[in-house]
């Protein structure tokens, strides 16, 4: 009983965060333990109608960033969207569990000595078209456009543009070696 009360309070808090930062918030369903971090000076947050965020969804929209999610978008458990510049997700798009989208990489230098910067980033917008299905454990990296009507198979890392009406599969060979 107490855990259900906590879940409902947490949902209300996350909805409040979205309402405060979104010009129009359509019918949205959210599960438990979601975490939405919206910085105070974002460019915009636009969420369409009938969005469904399952459980443990993680959204970050930083200052000067723009996140656009179309109508009837579904994010399954443990999905994460990290937006420092711009991420756009088209209508009727479906994410399997644990999909990750990043519009940035950490900046680094190789000279005079190698260093990765913790708070300095290189960014490029990400766009995912309409009617797409991203399978479980897909990772979409900065600067990528995925066209309309695409299927991205489980476990793929998308680091270049995908044209409309394309299926991408992670074609790994399983190597079986008998022991003995």
Explain briefly what this protein structure is.
The chain has 180 residues and is mostly beta strands. It is 11% helix and 37% strand.
User: Helices and strands: which structural class?
Assistant: mainly beta
How do the SSEs run, as a string of H and E? HEEEEEEEEEEEEEEEEEEEE
Helix content: 10-25%
Identify the CATH architecture: 3 Solenoid
If you average the pLDDT, what whole number results? 94
What is the count of helical runs?
Answer: 1
* Overall geometry: globular
Verbal overview:
There is one protein chain. By secondary structure, the chain is mainly beta. It has one domain (2-168): 3 Solenoid (UDP N-Acetylglucosamine Acyltransferase, domain 1). Helices cover 11% and strands 37% of the residues. The protein contains one helix and 20 strands. The protein has one helix spanning 2-21; strands at residues 28-30, 35-38, 44-47, 51-53, 58-61, 66-69, 74-75, 80-83, 86-89, 94-95, 100-102, 104-109, 115-123, 126-128, 133-134, 139-140, 145-146, 151-152, 157-158, 167-168. The strands form four sheets. The protein has a seven-stranded parallel beta sheet, with no helix packed on it. The protein has a six-stranded parallel beta sheet with strand order 2-5-8-11-16-19. Strands 3-6-9-14-17 form a five-stranded parallel beta sheet, with no helix packed on it. Strand 12 (104-109) and strand 13 (115-123) form a beta hairpin. The longest helix is centred in the first third of the chain and has 20 residues, at 2-21. It is globular and about 55 Å long.
């Amino acid at each position: 009983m107490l855990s259900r009360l906590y879940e409902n309070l947490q949902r209300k808090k996350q909805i409040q965060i979205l309402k405060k930062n979104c010009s129009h918030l359509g019918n949205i369903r959210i599960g438990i333990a979601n975490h939405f971090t919206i910085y105070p000076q974002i460019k915009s947050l636009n969420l369409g109608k009938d969005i469904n965020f399952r459980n443990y969804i993680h959204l970050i929209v930083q200052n000067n960033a723009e996140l656009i999610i179309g109508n009837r978008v579904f994010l399954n458990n443990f999905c994460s969207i990290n937006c420092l510049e711009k991420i756009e997700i088209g209508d009727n798009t479906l994410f399997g569990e644990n999909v990750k989208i990043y519009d940035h990489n950490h900046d680094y230098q190789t000279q005079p000595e190698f260093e990765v910067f913790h708070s300095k980033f290189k960014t490029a917008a990400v766009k995912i078209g309409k009617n797409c299905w991203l399978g479980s454990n897909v990772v979409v990296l900065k600067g990528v456009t995925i066209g309309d009507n695409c299927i991205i198979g489980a476990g793929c890392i998308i680091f270049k543009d995908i044209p409309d009406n394309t299926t991408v599969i992670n074609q790994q060979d399983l190597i079986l070696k008998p022991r003995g």
